[in-house]
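Training component of the fellowship. As part of building independent skills, the fellow (R.M.) carried out the full modelling exercise for a liganded target. The chosen ligand was nicotinamide-adenine-dinucleotide. The inputs are recorded below so that the supervisory panel can assess the work.
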Amino acid sequence: MAALINNTKSLWRRSIRLKDNQQPDLTKPGSSELPVTLAVIGCGQRGKAYTRYALRAPERCKVVAIAEPRPKTRQHFADLHKVDRTLVFDTWEDLLAASAETISTIGKRLADAVLIAVQDHMHAQVAVAFAAQGYHILCEKPMATSVQDCIKITNAVNDSGRIFGMGHVMRYSPYSREITEIIRSGALGELINVVQVEPVGYYHFAHSYVRGNWSKEKSSSFSLMTKCCHDIDLICNWFYPAVPVKVSSFGSLKHFRKSAKPKAAGSATRCLECAHEKDCPYSAKKIYLDPVAQGDLEWPAETIVDGLPDIENITEALQKGPYGLCVYESTNDVCDNQVVNIEFSNGTTASFTMIAFTEAICDRQTRLHFSHGEIIGDMRTFTVSDFRKRTTKVHRPKNEGGGHGGGDLGLIRSFVDAVSTGQQNLLGTNASEVLKSHLTVFAAEKSRRTGSVVDCIAFEQEARETSANESM
Ligand SMILES: NC(=O)c1ccc[n+]([C@@H]2O[C@H](COP(=O)([O-])OP(=O)(O)OC[C@H]3O[C@@H](n4cnc5c(N)ncnc54)[C@H](O)[C@@H]3O)[C@@H](O)[C@H]2O)c1
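Fellow's submitted model of the complex:
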């Protein structure tokens, strides 16, 4: 513990902005001379994605502490970011306890901010605990898996008065930002209707929502929440300041169930022993083993083993783990197709479709209909038609790379800017707004389950009353 405290003191000397109640006197983003220090909770896919920025812009932010239970993943991450070994922890609870220790002994946190990149069901507990210690927080989406937990996080963050970022990365891509600017400029008149399709991708869906982390509602959440809360958030942002007033939704788990299993697959429950495997687009051999055999060690193969994938460990994972199971014999229960309709307070409308069965992987197809124009986009380029000028122009927003059309980079950069200047508005949203868009997603799911149109205002009121009663 002495080493931890000494190390924390020395980190703190290099990063004096950790003082309680101290507001940086910096006036513009990027003006800090000191990098924002980050503690990463969960060093998996998303922890890695955001912290590439720390390697790319070390003068802006630095990873100084991590928590990760998988030994090889932890070691690799610690080495990559040169994290002092006194600040490498197995679990978030260990990191939190060490932080409590340094707060009580020397009055300092381990870092300026925590990046919460553990699985969905853990977000609430982790976010509330670190908010109580006064950390700035960047939390992966979804905020949490229940309405009440989302409210708890919002209250904890608002009470702490710290910066809060949400992994709604699509808001932060150059593509979305340019479209948002056109909407706000009024150049095409009033935005009247949005149609958005989220094409999840056939093998991506099989990987994540049939075999993987988001396949069961009980251990994560319903698929509209886990996959599409940022679509709904983006749509709500586009219509702002109008708010959703009514929502309806339909959807089902149509295909990935036993009744759709091809006869030729017989009684096989794993792809490696299935006679039909060669003809199945969802074959685990095709998704994981074949790419690794061809030297492709990246997603999705890298996510199913600890450390670097190779033929041996992937084969073992397919023989024993969930990623080798037949998609018709898995334990999944989340929808593979869902539609949502939203009416906003100013009479405008949106429709959204989440669908598993696409060649495209997550490249949203979007149509925005204005009183005097139209935008049609595919998340890479978009075409603007101006009815008044009778012009049509193709826009190709500059993408600096990284996931979600540059949204991952856009979010972490905005978060670091917000922390280094103390300006929440640089994120363009806050915990209360994030809560509101999540409430719309919960309301849509209620509609799907009950077969009724849900009144969003009454839904929110009821949620807040329940929360208030629970905390009495
Ligand atoms: N913003 C987006 O577009 C987007 C995309 C994908 C996933 N996500 C969300 O990001 C989060 C992380 O997803 P992922 O794909 O990185 O998952 P992942 O499984 O790759 O990473 C999670 C990591 O947390 C670690 N972990 C587990 N228990 C822990 C503990 N007690 N303490 C510390 N670490 C622990 C795991 O070992 C793992 O390395 C999820 O909430 C997911 O829904 C968001």
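The panel noted the following from the submitted structure. The chain has three domains: 36-167, 171-255+333-471, 258-320. Residues 431-450 form the longest helix (20 residues).
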